[in-house]
Write a structure and sequence with these properties.
The protein has about 80 residues and is mainly alpha-helical. The chain contains four helices and no strands. It starts with a helix and ends with a helix.
């Protein structure tokens, strides 16, 4: 294989990869889940006594919520 063929193969592979990478759809954020009011009332004393991180952890343990949803729910108490 001569050098010009290798160059065109490399350039073609690069352009193909670039085109495929740009074709991926952008990720859209899902809306937060509505907070569990009973869990929030149980977490309120933990927030006041131990702080935000402990309250988020307690909310996640009680509800099974993800980190983002738990943080948004606990932030709503402030």
């Amino acid at each position: 294989m001569d050098s010009s063929t290798a160059y065109f193969l490399i350039a073609g592979a690069f352009l193909f990869g670039y085109g495929c990478g740009r074709a991926t759809p952008s990720k859209t954020a899902t809306p937060p889940a509505p907070p569990d009011l009973d869990a929030l009332e149980a977490v309120r004393p933990i927030l006041e006594k131990h702080g935000q991180i402990a309250a988020i952890k307690a909310y996640r343990e009680r509800t099974g919520a993800g980190l983002r949803d738990a943080k948004l729910a606990v932030d709503a108490l402030r």
